[in-house]
Amino acid sequence: xxxxxxxxxxxxxxxxxxxxxxxxxxxxxxxxxxxxxxxxxxxxxxxxxxxxxxxxxxxxxxxxxxxxxxxxxxxxxxxxxxxxxxxxxxxxxxxxxxxxxxxxxxxxxxxxxxxxxxxxxxxxxxxxxxxxxxxxxxxxxx
Length: 142
Ligand SMILES: CC(=O)NCC[C@H](N)C(=O)O
Prior knowledge:
Blueprint: H1 6-9, E1 15-18, E2 21-27, E3 36-42, E4 47-50, E5 56-63, E6 66-70, E7 76-79, E8 84-86, E9 93-97, E10 103-110
Antiparallel strand pairs: 1-2, 2-3, 3-10, 4-9, 5-8, 5-10, 6-7, 6-9
């Protein structure tokens, strides 16, 4: 069993800060769960264009308000506590936090994020290097 404290993880290398967001990665590939699990804060007024070409991501909003724009269709969905979105088509999108509103989200990535990935100029995290004997997990990807 793995038990971790968000407050502790927030003080160590599990915390990753980037432009407009902070991600605390409670589960990583090395945990062999087949996914990674992050608590991510989208900073006030942030506007983030992303396209996770190498990952599937689902996101659940716990606090704060904003919107997500699907760049393939132009559709805009409001985000508030209780809303989940899943980027099942590696959808290119813009996530916006409302003016003055910080959003706290629970995020799951498949395949799992390895460590301190941040977005490249293409809005994606790089594909992870293949696992070694040391990092290979017993649980196959979902
Ligand atoms: C919701 C979202 O995609 N935010 C960007 C950061 C990312 N989710 C992460 O936690 O690594």
